Amino acid sequence: MKRFNKLDVIVLTALFIMTLFVWTLPIQNDQLPFGEGDAAWHFTVGDWIGTQDRTIWRLPNYIGYWYYNFNKILGTNALEYPPPNHVNYAFMSITGGDRVVPIYIYKAISSVFAAFLTYFLLRRYYGIPIAATAAVGASFGYREMMTYLFGQQPTLVALTFIPIVLYTYYRFLTSYFEGKPQNIYLLLTGLVLAAQYLLHGQGLVSLFMLGFFTLFMFIKHRKFYIPKKSIIWGIVTVIAVLALTLPFLQIYTGVGNATVEKTPITRLLSWNIDSSLQQGSYPDAYFSFDRAYPTINLPFGINMFVIFILAGVVTLALRRKNIDLLILSWLIGVYITLHLDALVGLAVGRTARMLTIEAPILYTLAAIGAFSLLSLLLSFTTLKKIQKAYARYLFAIVLIAVIFTTVGLQSINELEGSYQGVRISPEQAEAALWMKDNTAEDSIILSLGQVTYGKMRFMYALSQRFMEQEQSGFTARNITNTHILIDYSDAIRFGQQHLGAQLQQVEGSLPNGSMLVYDQNNIRLYELP
Amino acid sequence: MKTIHLIGIATLIILLASFFILGITGVRTVIGMFLIFVLPAYLLLDLTSLDSEEKFFIGTTLGISLFALAVFFVDRIVPSMRISTVVVYVIVVLVWYFGRGKLKKRSKHSKEVVQDKPQHSTEHQTNQGNT
């Protein structure tokens, strides 16, 4: 196992600055919040905690109405996730001194955290060139990027912890088979698993990888003994994990399971998820292997990246060192996870969301494969050892350049242009802030005119008032709206005359006694009698 | 140049880059991330036999989830998130400070044993942090 040196500091610093720059591109030019409904929901909870200076066990009414009656055990205002993700938003908002930008910086860095953890894991066992190549690749993970933009943050962050769970368990299990169990790593494995669970229950897919690694190690070493101290540590670990997680169990169990049909078992024969299974929920590109990874075309339509992955698998399978078995277990665990819809009937949407775990392992395999092929080639040369070492670093630079000029530049373009013009506008944000300061906390607002659902939801978040776009939303919650917001700004901005005419019609038919309380930038708020 | 000096320079470069990319909000947020996610867990893991890289990476992973949880629990009693954060921080620093003192005493004792019984003590030292 190799310790870090100065070059590691340089590589990690460069990686951090690059990811900070690339992943915060959507917030650099336009500092208003963006994302889909989920992004707005998480933002709303974190923002409430930050502005109120209180962590919460029960949601305030205006957030509780959002997923009304979602939890059958804990009731209408139950948390939908354990506290850490939203408390982190609040921490960032407070330390950063702004309601929006710091939360998005946290989202950006935590979304790409797996790249750093992959570096840590690979650096210690495979050296800097392999670690740096895989980490740079993982830092441009396309599915991670899309999930970050859409806003399913807790799942995304929980799944980034996988390399660390693998590392801590690896350290425990290898020391166990060496006859000197380092039990601290058993406790750390339990704590990291608990940390994943506290962000999102799906993080526990790490257990598949740990299970396969345990199996492989027992088959390889054929040794079984139970050290007394490990039993005690095992009990301590279980108690610690239960103490941390049990208080929040009902957040997950209260939701219940929707009945879904298993996808055809033939899906087990393909790695990718067919985009047709999730039409409408994700763009087709989300499922595209060619979009997600570098395409280095060889004759006969062969992609060199795939060759590198296969070479990595073959290298590991032939060598079968303990660490190689860990990486193979990681791969198998990812395969199982990405086929849970076919294996146990998990909703395909959930499986699709977990595609974010794919990039770190595939880049790891590709890096190991590419450098194995290089070593094979170098073995036929008469180069000196030091020259071979330089060749490895040079090869890493070439691979990183390829990654950067393919998926890297695509990612930069994608992030730079994301949600430009379609996120909440400055005028809408201004109106939302006015509502926060000038309307009662229990105001219920019918909001009309925003061209996207996300815009309305972020007005909801910034105003800290409950909003819906349709009257049926209030009926379902057994409440009545106290205000109506008529927002012409989008109709004017996007030239939607039909929408403008509809809004005028609504405004013309407001009940007598409705009072205009806000009229700025073509946005009007009426208080209803 | 020692690695620790390079880390200092790297930190400065990161803060400068954060400023150029995201302004003062960026700098404050990056510092906030370090104070919330990295430092407390690092201090607690400093009481174990983990090496510095392990403390940093494992600690940060735990810090992202468990520091917030600790503040959440304290906030059930202390009615302010900010004050709860300070309380958790003070507890972590005290645990680290006194725990570190005890560890130093123990490792001093171990060294004395090493001088007396080299073979036994090597094993003792290896296992010390892990049990």
Model description:
Chain A contains 27 helices and seven strands. Chain A folds into two domains: 112-256 and 271-415, no CATH class; 426-527. Chain A is mostly helical. In chain A, helix 3 packs parallel to helix 24, helix 8 packs parallel to helix 22 and helix 11 (162-177) packs antiparallel against helix 12 (184-199). In chain A, strands 4-3-5-7-6 form a five-stranded mixed sheet, with helices on both faces. Chain A has a two-stranded antiparallel ribbon with strand order 1-2. The mean pLDDT of chain A is 93. In chain B, helix 1 packs across helix 3 (81-116) and helix 2 (52-75) runs antiparallel to helix 3 (81-116). Chain B is flat, with a radius of gyration of 19 Å. With 131 residues, chain B is an all-alpha fold. Chain B has one domain (3-101). Helices cover 87% and strands 0% of the residues of chain B. The interface between A and B is large, with 69 and 53 residues.
Query: What is Rg of chain B?
Result: 19 Å
Low-confidence stretches of chain A: none
Quote the beta fraction of chain A: 5-15%
Shape assignment of chain B: flat
Notable characteristics:
heterodimer; A: 529 residues; 62% helix; 5% strand; globular; B: 131 residues; mainly alpha; disordered C terminus
Topology:
The complex is a heterodimer of chains A (about 525) and B (about 130).
Chain A: H1 6-23, H2 25-28, H3 37-52, H4 61-64, H5 84-96, H6 101-111, H7 113-126, H8 128-138, H9 142-150, H10 153-160, H11 162-177, H12 184-199, H13 206-221, H14 228-245, H15 249-253, H16 289-292, E1 297-298, E2 302-303, H17 304-319, H18 322-337, H19 340-343, H20 348-353, H21 358-379, H22 385-417, H23 426-438, E3 444-448, H24 453-463, E4 466-468, H25 471-476, E5 483-487, H26 489-493, H27 497-508, E6 515-520, E7 523-527
Parallel strand pairs in A: 3-4, 3-5
Antiparallel strand pairs in A: 1-2, 5-7, 6-7
Helix pairs in contact in A: 1-8, 3-5, 3-24, 5-6, 7-8, 7-11, 8-21, 8-22, 10-12, 11-12, 11-13, 12-14, 13-18, 17-18, 17-21, 18-21, 23-24
Chain B: H1 3-45, H2 52-75, H3 81-116, H4 118-128
Helix pairs in contact in B: 1-2, 1-3, 2-3, 3-4
